[in-house]
Each structure stands twice: as C-alpha cells, then as structure tokens.
Amino acid sequence: MRHAVVLGAGIGGLCAAGALSAVCERVTLVERDALPAGPAARRGVPQGRHAHVLVTAGIEAVDRLFPGIYASMVAAGAPVVRDFSAFRLAPGGGAPLRLCGPPPEPFAGLVSRPCLEAHIRARVRKLSNVVIRDGVAATGLTAEGGRVTGVRLSQPLAADLVVDATGRGSRAPNWLVELGYPAPREERVPIDLMYVTRQFRQPHLPALVVGVSARPGRARGMVLFAQEEGRCVLTVSGYGAHHPPREPERLLDALASLAPPDVVSALRAAEPLGDPVVAHFPANVRHRYDRLRRFPPGFLVLGDAICSTNPAYALGMSVAARQAEMLRAVVAAGDQDLARRYFRAAAKPAGAAWAAATGGDLALPEVPGRRPLSVRLAGAYSRRLLGAAERDPVVAHQFLRVAALQDPSSRLVRPSMIARTLRPAWRGDRP
Ligand SMILES: Cc1cc2nc3c(=O)[nH]c(=O)nc-3n(C[C@H](O)[C@H](O)[C@H](O)COP(=O)(O)OP(=O)(O)OC[C@H]3O[C@@H](n4cnc5c(N)ncnc54)[C@H](O)[C@@H]3O)c2cc1C
C-alpha cells in the first residue's frame, strides 16, 4: 500500500496511523482540531475532560503498537496498580470484587485522556513516514470507478486507502450514500446517561481505582481514578431520572451515597481543579459495516465511528486500539477483499463491547427498551455471577478478564464457572 490517509487524530486515528506506518509507504493523519504540543483538552474530544481508563487489553494493544509506551507513561508519573487493595471495583453495585495476587503488568492505563493522547501523539510524530495535517476537516470522499481514491479537504488529497476514525459523529454513512452505496444499518440502545466529572489534586487517595456501578433500584454509579501528577478524576453518572447533580457540594453528597467513606473523606479534603463538567450520552450506537454486502474498495472505518458504547464500561479506546492492530494485519495481508476481512475482524472487539454495555444497561429496569428472553436470562445470570465474584476470587478474576476484553464472554458460561456462580452458598446473600 503506497499512501493511506487516516481521518481524526483521537485514540483510534493515532493508533491507526501508527499501525499503518508499518505496512504503508506513507501515512497522512488529518485532524480537524489544531493539535496541542502537550497534554491539553481540545474541542474535538469533549469527553477528554471526563474519567478515562485504558483496560488491560487496551493498554496491551497500545503497547504493542508503540513498544515501550506504557513504561514511558509510568516514568512520567502514571500511577500503577501493584496490589489489588488499591483496586476497589464493584461492578455489581455492592461489595468490591474479591481479587488476590499481584495484578499483571501492564494492568491499566491510569492517565488522563489528554496525557494518553499526548504520549501516543509524540510517538506518531516520530514516525518518519507519517505526516500530521491538523486544523483541517475532511468533508467527504473522492471516488472513481467505484473505488475511493482520496478525501475532500480544502483541496482533494489522493490516497490508496482512507480510514475514517472521526469518532461518534462520523459522516461515513452519508459519504457512502453520496457515492451510491448503502449506509450500514444502525443499532441503537437509548440510555440517557449523564456524567458529572470533577478533577482534584489528592496525592493521598485510599485506592488508585474505585468504581461502584449502577444496580437495579439505584441507577447511579461512580468512578475515581488516580492520574498523573498527584491528580485524580471523579465521575458520578446516572441514568434518566437519576442524573447526578452538577453543584460541587451536592456532587460530593451524591458520592457519599455510593462510595466508601474513606474515599469520600479523601475527596472532601482534596483541592478541586476547576468546576464540575457534564457530558450527556444518549445511546449506545453501532453501525453494522460488517453486514454490508456492497462497500467501496479503498475505504475503512474504525473506533467510535463503528461502535460507541456506554462510557461507564470504559471500552471504547481499547476497542479502537485493537481494531488498529487488526487494520495493520489485514492491510499487510494484501488488498484483496480488504473491507470484508477488516470489518469482520473489527466486529469482534466492537461486538464484545456492545454486548457488555447493552447487556449491562438493559439489566437495569430504569433503562427503557425491549428485553427479549435471551437478554433477561443473561441479565439474571450476570447478577448472580457478580454476586459470586464478590466472594469467589476465581469468578472475580475471570469476570475482570472478560470486562477488560482479554477473554471472550463465553468464558463466563463454562461449566466450571456456571457451577461456581450457581453455588447455593452465593444465593440471596448479595448486599
Ligand atoms: C464521557 C466519556 C467517558 C469515556 N470514558 C472512557 C474510558 O474510561 N475508557 C475508554 O476506553 N473509553 C472511554 N470513552 C470512550 C472513548 O472516549 C472513545 O471510545 C474513544 O475516544 C474513541 O476513539 P476514536 O478515535 O474513535 O474517536 P475520538 O477519540 O472521538 O476522536 C475523533 C477525532 O476525529 C476528529 N474529527 C472529527 N471530525 C473530523 C473531520 N471531519 N475531519 C478531521 N477530523 C475530525 C476529532 O476532532 C477527534 O480528534 C468515554 C467516552 C465518553 C463520552
């Protein structure tokens, strides 16, 4: 492949540019924002001011794409979970998972989103065959004889391959229709989720990761992540009628109804860095590019532009990084049937994130929507499993590996796992 153009320099676009640089003669990365020199929030990524973490599969993928990047983030001050006592995650909304032994390394990317982007951007800038063109928006595709031949910027830019990584607002479905191709079917699960986030300086947190998920009857959750430079980020989230308050004091009061008391005290004593910020996430959305029968050669889509899931599951960046690795592999294998091979591969991590997020969301009666029998059964089983994970480290570790995209969800329904989950001792003893 001679020249690839990647649209969007978010996590997906940066990873895709890094991946393609290994298999293309040259790569141009096009970004609408003027990119900052270091870690800074920017307009095109409004979610960057909210709690972000890279789960294990994501940090592993980013580290394979940019070898040594995890170590460089740690050297620059990224907190490291060295002991599970620093990791208090309650995905069932009750007691934390019971985990033991040392966590694998890398275990999680605990840096702010602007810092993560800045680290990856710095690595992409060092690639001699990648050019970054920032402050330029892509407005469409150019095509000839049914093949995409480039992208419309202020001037058309020719390419052998165009990859759309412009995020949740991607215009790719419209661009396809403009070229005479069908748009992918859109799947949507509305959730009306509100995020209220505030950053603090607090070098003395009782844990590096604290998370308490929403549960039936209490459609609110929280996460607190330690980050670089003694900072931490708190997000309280809530569905529908349970949107969290935005006022600083009321936000901490809402936190007190969710988080352990030592965490609440640490935040009450912490120095706030700016006011709370708000994000509204209306729906999980997935575009079924993997189901299209007709698709123009020379064009692919990646990251949130394919599938954007409830941020509380913290999977979007990891899915994008995994898809970038897949992109590298399918392009290295040749141009023949590229779109079908790529979208089939990319659907795997996207589908795993989709199943986790929509399954979890629809398990909450507060989220409206149709629940076929399969969804109701899966919801009931996963409630039992999370109850077991609060007491049984084997179940907890397996759940965590699935939640971090390291293992397929089928691991949770192996006979040994079903037996542990349905063991009578766990029955009815959830808090
Ligand atoms: C509140 C919130 C919290 C989240 N927390 C987590 C988390 O903890 N962990 C996690 O893994 N994921 C999280 N996510 C999801 C994560 O942010 C996304 O999945 C991830 O950013 C997707 O990357 P992307 O590259 O596909 O898109 P984005 O990161 O959104 O990047 C798209 C880029 O394209 C650029 N662009 C847009 N249009 C154009 C154009 N026409 N021309 C050129 N450039 C363009 C934008 O400026 C932007 O830079 C969260 C999301 C939200 C909303």
Could you characterize what this model shows?
This protein has twelve helices and 15 strands. The chain is of the alpha/beta class and 431 residues long. Among the domains are: 3-46 and 71-78 and 106-187 and 284-357, FAD/NAD(P)-binding domain (3-Layer(bba) Sandwich); 373-426, no CATH class. Strands 3-10-11-12-9-13-15 form a seven-stranded mixed β-sheet, with helices on both faces. It has a five-stranded parallel β-sheet with strand order 4-2-1-8-14. Strand 5 (140-144) and strand 6 (147-152) form a beta hairpin. Helix 1 (11-21) runs parallel beside helix 4 (113-125), helix 2 (56-65) packs parallel to helix 8 and helix 8 runs antiparallel to helix 9. Flavin-adenine dinucleotide is lined by residues 7-13, 30-33, 44-45, 47, 50-54, 58, 137-138, 165-167, 195, 279, 281, 303-305, 311, 314-318, 320.
Q: Care to give the gist of this entry?
A:
By secondary structure, the protein is an alpha/beta fold. The protein has helices spanning 11-21, 56-65, 69-75, 113-125, 172-178, 248-256, 261-268, 316-332, 338-362, 373-389, 393-403, 415-421; strands spanning 3-7, 26-31, 87-90, 130-134, 140-144, 147-152, 156-158, 161-164, 186-201, 209-212, 220-226, 231-239, 271-287, 299-301, 307-308.
Descriptors for this entry?
seven-stranded mixed β-sheet; 15 strands; binds flavin-adenine dinucleotide; FAD/NAD(P)-binding domain; 12 helices; 431 residues; five-stranded parallel β-sheet
Residues in helix, %: 25-40%
End-to-end distance: 57 Å
Structural class by helix and strand composition: alpha/beta
Element-level helix/strand string: EHEHHEHEEEEEHEEEEHHEEEHHHHH
Q: List the uncertain runs.
A: none
Write the CATH fold name of the domain at 3-46 and 71-78 and 106-187 and 284-357. FAD/NAD(P)-binding domain
**CATH level-1 class of the domain at 3-46 and 71-78 and 106-187 and 284-357:** Alpha Beta
Tell me which ligands are bound: flavin-adenine dinucleotide
Major sheet: size, sense and barrel closure? 7 strands, mixed
What is the assigned CATH homologous superfamily of the domain at 3-46 and 71-78 and 106-187 and 284-357?
FAD/NAD(P)-binding domain
Number of strands: 15
Q: Order the strands across the largest sheet as they lie in space.
A: 3-10-11-12-9-13-15
Measured on Cα atoms, how large is the radius of gyration?
A: 21 Å
Q: How many helical stretches?
A: 12
What is the architecture of the domain at 3-46 and 71-78 and 106-187 and 284-357 at the second tier of CATH? 3-Layer(bba) Sandwich
Strand content: 15-25%
Shape: globular
Give the integer mean of the pLDDT values: 96
